[in-house]
Structures are given as structure tokens and as C-alpha cells.
UniProtKB/TrEMBL annotation:
Transmembrane segments: none annotated. This is RagB/SusD family nutrient uptake outer membrane protein. Pfam families: SusD-like_3 (PF14322), SusD_RagB (PF07980). It comes from Spirosoma flavum. Residues 401-570 form the RagB/SusD domain. Residues 545-570 are annotated as: Disordered.
């Protein structure tokens, strides 16, 4: 059984709308629209469960969405912009990135909606009846995990924000910015107090709920991030290492033998490597977008990542758009640095071949003029013939002329033609125009746990142990028989290895911008490896602009200055 959150409305004191969910068993949605719910509904067994489930819903406003991807992968050393789409200010770091951007407002509001729902569950739990103390503690622990998760996203993106740990019962203009140290203190307090009451297993019996393993992985990530923040402490790396080791040793997780199988759709989404995933389904009501993001076009419902990495294959010889190759929205394309340096080793490392699509089979047979491949004038295809091949190197004109298909070489890459990332494609959609995807988003997986451990140990001076941790990930990534060749020695274990290994393993998985920020090299590496962004990126961009709506809704200070300060430079 998968734990499915559905969209419902729920009123608290008639003033604050909380996003709540129903319950779906055997992956079948049973939607019951409830309106004018009394204030005491949350005190009932059903109401308390609904409120807990509602606390998970804002995860779907950030993970596997256009807005979440925009805020985590655009404008980094690994990705540049394609020819299509909006929000390119996040790539270019120009004046388009400002406090009025609607997706910034939408994500901000959704995260605080989630926080207030969590606050309601925690604050009202003592009065809830008809639920055992053990289950009540578990549910409170789950929402503490979620509240910490939401604040962790907020502090990484915006720095110190409004810290609210009790339910907001009515409209207020009194807000203020806490320090980063205060936010991290609250995050860690939530996670560490939740550990004893979360399910002590790798996978919840109601799959998708937070477990102790998920909380320990998040703790490892939080401590690793805090270690380079203004709130850093001497023992941050040691604690990150300890929590990562707990996840690796105590729950039975294991890396799948094949890197590609980690991203198998359907039954394969629930596997031994997944520590925590954000749940999606094929039901459009379940995946319905919330109002702030739906109105901005920021979320069409469902897992949207399948839309955002494709190239414009459907205008090429022998090809038309279909379900398998997806809609070519062309939002993100790999940088030259990503392809030629990070994924340079293709003899021993399988992740280049298994991360990117390099072959298209004709679904539109016939004879056509060639477009980008100047080695031949025409090509002829039967259905299923190779129509496009990307060799990944500058194949000579003579070599290309021998191929009965178009060959796209690096010198011909463009904002429309490039290597698409394969991880999120969704061939199970009902038709070729359908946008909401049904894949779960793998928010935490064991390979990242090993990489967290490797980085923490390296920072602690334990280079041999760090090398062993990173080699575990590298051996799994090897082509069969190349495992030994993939291992590195302690002499090669440094932060550049960490930077690149996280790129190879976690490409596109909504983490790179936060990685660069916490390493303190967002500006440096973006200038070096992303020509589009190099001109404008500066230290200001280590934080996002506070949404103007938040500033405008906050009561001004006594001297007339804004009560909620904007981040410097915006």
C-alpha cells in the first residue's frame, strides 16, 4: 500500500485554510469534498489523521515541479538553459530574478501553509481523542520531520525567515526575520525529538510516511549544510557522519546493482535504495495543484520533471512527438563542463550512458532532408530504425557519412538539440500531451547518504574512510568488470572529487544549487562553467529575494522601514 495524500479543504476557526488529505488504499482515490468543517474536527480520529496527511501535501509544491527545479538546478555549473520556458532569470541572474517572481511567492506560501498545518497538529494533539498515545506520538513525530524539512528548504533558499512554531489562528501583520542560527536550532530540535517516535524501519508500513531512517538522513544533510553556514558549530561534520552511518548500517538499505534501475517507474519506484520519496499518483484529483502555484502556472499537478529535460526531437527527420520520448519543453540542457568533465569517463563509469538519452528510433518512417547533420543530404527510415544518435564526441564527417541516420556531435549542440536527462521521463502517461506525471520523487536515497558520509569524513580528516564511502557509490556505477577501475585512492580524494561525484550521481535531482551555496562556490563555479550566467552572478545570489507580498503584508517598523527586510542586493 502506498501512502497517498489527496487534496481537500479544511477550516480552522474559520480563518486559516489548511491543506488536508483523504485516504487512498490500494492506490484508489476516494475523494470526499468536505466544506465548513468545524473547528474541533482535528480533535477527532479522522480529523487528526487528515491533518497529519495534509502536512505532507506541500512537499508536492517543491519536489518534482517546475518551481522546485527552477530554484535548485537552474544557474549552476551543471545546467544551462534550453530554448523554451520561463523563469530564465534563475539561469542568468539578471533583473528577471526579483521579489515579484510568482513562483517564489507560491513556494513561500506553500511551505508556510505546510508549517502552519504541522503547528496545528502538534498544538492540538493533546486534545485529540480516539487515537492511541503511541500512534499520536508517531503522527506528531512525522509532522515535526515535515516542519523541519520545510524550514530547511526556506533557510537554504532565503536565509533567516519568519520562525513560527505555534499555530497561526488568524491574519496577522506581525512578522519578523529570525537568524539562521534560530532556524537551524528549531530544525534540529524537531528532527532529534522526532527520532524516538518515528517508525524504526527503512520503509513505513504505510509507504511514503516519514520514518526514523528518513529523519536521520535529513539530519545528516542538515548538519552538513549547517557546517558552512553562519550557524556552524565545531561538531557539525561529526554529527553528519554519525547520522549518515546510522542510515547505512541500521535499516537494511542497499544500493541497487544497476544505477539505471534506481529510476525504474511503477513497481520499481519502491526499492531498497529509497530512504524517502514524495508520493505522486496517476489520479488527477490527487495531484491537483494548490491555488497559488496553479494560478502562476508553476504546477500542473503531478510530477512535472518529465517535461523539462527533453530536446526538440519532434522536428527532426523520421520523428514525431510521442509518449515515450515525451514533450520537448527544453528547459534545461547540460553544460559543456557537465558532459566533458563530470561525465568524461564513459569507459568505466556507466552513469553517462544511463543518465542521458543518446538514441531515438524512428516513429515517422519515410525519406527526409537532413537538418543538423551535414554529412549527408537525405535519410530514409523504416519504423524502429535509429533516426538520431548522439555519440558524445566529435565524430568526423567521414564517419558520420557512413551512418544511415543523423548524428548530433558536440559542435552542433544548441539550446534545442542536446542530451536529455533520462531519470524523470514518464512513458506511463495516458497520451502525448498529458502533463501530470505519476512518478514518485526520490527525495533521499542511499547513494546520497554515502556521499554525505564521504564529505563529512573528508572534512574531519578521515581521508581513508571518506575514500571507502565514495568508492561504494563508484563501484555500483561501474560497467560490469570495471569495478576496480572505478575505485579511487586516498590521494585522489578531495573536495573536487566530491563536487564532481555528487554531480555524476545526483544530476538533476533538485540539489545542485544548494550544494554550490553550502560549499561557498556558487559564484566561482558558475562563472567558470556556465557562460550564460557568468556575467551577472554575484554573492547576492546565494540567497533568493524575499517575495514582495511577504514584505508588503508585514507591519512596518516604528521608523517606517519595512518590518520584514529584503535580502541584500534585491
Amino acid at each position: 500500500m502506498k501512502f497517498i495524500v489527496t487534496a481537500k479543504s479544511f477550516r480552522v476557526l474559520g480563518l486559516i485554510t489548511l491543506l488536508l488529505s483523504g485516504q487512498a488504499c490500494k492506490n484508489i482515490l476516494e475523494e470526499k469534498v468536505i466544506s465548513a468543517i468545524g473547528n474541533d474536527y482535528i480533535n477527532t480520529p479522522k480529523g487528526f489523521e487528515d491533518a497529519t496527511r495534509a502536512s505532507y501535501a506541500p512537499l508536492r509544491s517543491f519536489y518534482a515541479t517546475q518551481q522546485g527545479l527552477t530554484m535548485t538546478e537552474f544557474g549552476t555549473d551543471l545546467y544551462a538553459t534550453g530554448s523554451d520556458g520561463s523563469y530564465k532569470g534563475f539561469h542568468f541572474y539578471d533583473t528577471q530574478l526579483n521579489s515579484f517572481v510568482d513562483i517564489l511567492q507560491g513556494v513561500w506560501e506553500e511551505l508556510y501553509r505546510g508549517i502552519n498545518t504541522c503547528n496545528a497538529v502538534i498544538g492540538r494533539a493533546p486534545a485529540a481523542t480516539g487515537i492511541t498515545d503511541v500512534l499520536k506520538k508517531q503522527r506528531v513525530a512525522e509532522v515535526k520531520f515535515l516542519r523541519a524539512h520545510y524550514y530547511f528548504i526556506l533557510v537554504q533558499q532565503w536565509g533567516g525567515v519568519d520562525l513560527r512554531l505555534t499555530e497561526t489562528l488568524g491574519p496577522t501583520k506581525k512578522t519578523s526575520r529570525a537568524t539562521e542560527a534560530d532556524i537551524y536550532k528549531a530544525i534540529l530540535a524537531d528532527l532529534e525529538s522526532a527520532l524516538p517516535d518515528l517508525e524504526n524501519k527503512a520503509r513505513s508500513s504505510d509507504y511514503g510516511r516519514a520514518t526514523k531512517a528518513a529523519a536521520e538522513h535529513l539530519l545528516a544533510r542538515v548538519y552538513l549544510t549547517k557546517a558552512t553556514s553562519s550557524a556552524k558549530a565545531a561538531d557539525d561534520y561529526a554529527k553528519a557522519a554519525t547520522y549518515a552511518q546510522n542510515v547505512i548500517a541500521n535499516y537494511g538499505f542497499k544500493l541497487l546493482p544497476d544505477f539505471a534501475s534506481v529510476f525504474s517507474q511503477g513497481a520499481g519506484e519502491i526499492n531498497d535504495e529509497v530512504v524517502f520519496s514524495v508520493q505522486y499518483t496517476s489520479d488527477p484529483l490527487t495531484n491537483a495543484a494548490s491555488a497559488p502555484l496553479a494560478s502562476s502556472g508553476g504546477n500542473t499537478g503531478g510530477n512535472n520533471l518529465h517535461l523539462l529535460f527533453g530536446m526538440q526531437y519532434d522536428t527532426q527527420a523520421g520523428m514525431v512527438r510521442d509518449i515515450a520520448y515525451d514533450r520537448p519543453f527544453r528547459r534545461l540542457r547540460p553544460t559543456t563542463f557537465a558532459l566533458e568533465t563530470v561525465f568524461k569517463d564513459r569507459v568505466n563509469d556507466s552513469r553517462y550512458k544511463k543518465s542521458f538519452r543518446d538514441t531515438w528510433l524512428s516513429n515517422n518512417p519515410g525519406t527526409f532532408n537532413t537538418a543538423f547533420d551535414k554529412s549527408k543530404l537525405t535519410v530514409t527510415f523504416k519504423a524502429g530504425d535509429t533516426a538520431i544518435f548522439i555519440p558524445g564526441y566529435e565524430m568526423t564527417l567521414a564517419e558520420r557519412a557512413k551512418k544511415p541516420y543523423q548524428v548530433l556531435v558536440p559542435s552542433a549542440y544548441s539550446e534545442t538539440l542536446f542530451l536529455p536527462l533520462l531519470k524523470f521521463f514518464d512513458p506511463l502517461r495516458p497520451d502525448k500531451t498529458y502533463e501530470p506525471g505519476s512518478r514518485d520523487f526520490l527525495a533521499f536515497r542511499l547513494a546520497e547518504t554515502y556521499l554525505i558520509l564521504a564529505e563529512a569524513q573528508l572534512k574531519l580528516g578521515k581521508t581513508t574512510e571518506a575514500t571507502a564511502a565514495i568508492n561504494t557509490v563508484r563501484r555500483r556505477a561501474a560497467w560490469p568488470g570495471k569495478e576496480t577501475a572505478m575505485e579511487i585512492t586516498p590521494a585522489a580524494m578531495d573536495m573536487e572529487m566530491i563536487y564532481q561525484e555528487r554531480g555524476r550521481e545526483l544530476m538533476g535531482e533538485q540539489i545542485r544549487w544548494m550544494d554550490l551555496k553550502r560549499w561557498g562556490n556558487l559564484v566561482e563555479r558558475t562563472k567558470l562553467y556556465n557562460p550564460q550566467a557568468a556575467v551577472n552572478v554575484k554573492e547576492t545570489h546565494n540567497l533568493r529575494p524575499i517575495p514582495q507580498t511577504q514584505i508588503d503584508r508585514t507591519e512596518k517598523a516604528a521608523d517606517g522601514s519595512p518590518g520584514f527586510a529584503q535580502n541584500p542586493g534585491y
